[in-house]
Backbone:
């Protein structure tokens, strides 16, 4: 059984970095374009020096909206778009350094050009020091 590591040691001891981004005021046409959204996720991986395992998987909802998933060697990216609200939710999950997840986040934000962004970075999977 694992014990939770102290929060101050988060960047050194966490198994995963999870960046959650909510973006508002986005272009509805972009949010409904699977090729463009897929290219944005692939570009985010490149900007962060992360490694896609496959092409983005796309699910197009009836009418409008997308879920696009990009598996990366370090974990995954996912985006859920709501063109009718000009809103997108993005998850960037990575076992790489937090700075790389932040670079991916910044790339997505820049490419989508949101009017408002709410972002949270969480460290997940704190393991006790195995040297004990």
Residues:
């Amino acid at each position: 059984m694992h014990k939770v590591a102290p929060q101050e040691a988060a960047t050194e001891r966490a198994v995963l970095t999870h960046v959650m981004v909510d973006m508002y005021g986005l272009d509805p046409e972009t949010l409904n374009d699977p090729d463009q959204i897929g290219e944005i996720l692939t570009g985010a991986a490149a900007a962060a020096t992360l490694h896609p395992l496959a092409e983005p998987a796309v699910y197009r909802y009836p009418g409008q909206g997308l879920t696009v998933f990009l598996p990366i060697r370090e974990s995954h990216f996912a985006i859920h778009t709501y063109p009718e609200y000009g809103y997108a939710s993005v998850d960037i999950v990575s076992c790489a350094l937090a700075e790389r997840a932040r670079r991916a986040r910044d790339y997505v934000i820049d490419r989508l050009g949101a009017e408002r962004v709410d972002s949270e970075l969480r460290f997940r999977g704190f393991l006790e020091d195995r040297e004990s």
The chain has one domain: 9-126.
